[in-house]
Amino acid sequence: MMRLHPGLTGMLMTLVLLCLAVPLSAATITEYRPTTVACRLDNGAKQLAIRSFRKEGVPYYLLVDLNSLATRTAPASSVRPITEAGPPSFSDILAKNTAPPYKLQNFGLTHAMTNPSGMFLTVDLCPSKRPFEKGAFEALAAIASKSGRPTPVAICITGAWLRTHREELSWLQAREQQGLLAITWVNHSLTHFYDPTLPLERNFMLAAKTDQRHEILANEVAMLEAGLVPAPFFRFPGLVADERLVKLLAELSLIPLGADAWLAKGEEPRNGSIILVHGNGNEPPGITRLMKLLQSPDFPAFLPLAAATTASRNNLLDKPATAGQR
Question: SS3 letters for 62-75?
Fold first, then answer.
């Protein structure tokens, strides 16, 4: 048997690990456009196509299940447009969470619309030069090892973080594939602009000359090209929005996602709470509180984000998260 030089062996192993760690683009996405087409899959399930696009030149749709809010991509040739009215669940939820009165900060779905036994963990990945909070994700994966079920978590991802943290994204995707994490992938904007010298009214996505539509749709493209399927939710950077931005979300069939338990700010979670922490290394106090919560004897059950809406009350509360997954 031929023996390799130890140094060469080490180099080959490093290359193999890098190939495994860095996710390749799933496909090139072009002609990405909003649409609203009621349709049915071959299995009879009613869906709403909210985006049309080409994947390596083949026409595709991004579909939302009107009952469960699960999202998927499918070739346009595999779905049949329908004219009959579908179930009102998704449209009702969208309408309720984009209706006035509008407020500058933390507008939208901030607490469960249902009365579930558990809470909803959301982790923001805003732009950051720091490593991600791997220990927190490992703790969530460890829960799954004991329970035998993936731990639900909604990860709100920015294009800026995705672009500069490919190996960490690959690590998260691997835990998803191993059945340890049930991830709902939520759009958190492409660039997540922030200037600490500006007031909220002119900051984040409300900053002058911000192309809000591009911030939303271009990040969906980035997510799809990285192998992530966007859920029908959107988290405003800084939780900051105005009436115009909320109406844009409604037009794009996206539910604004807020929170009533931002742990780093000392907000106490309760049953039905949508918990917010930052997993990008920028807000350690929130992660510290989360780790204490995970270690507490009365640790709450985490539920898939879609179960916070009435659409999923009957068919998702006893299942791992499915919305925003392939």
Answer: EEEECCCCCEEEEE
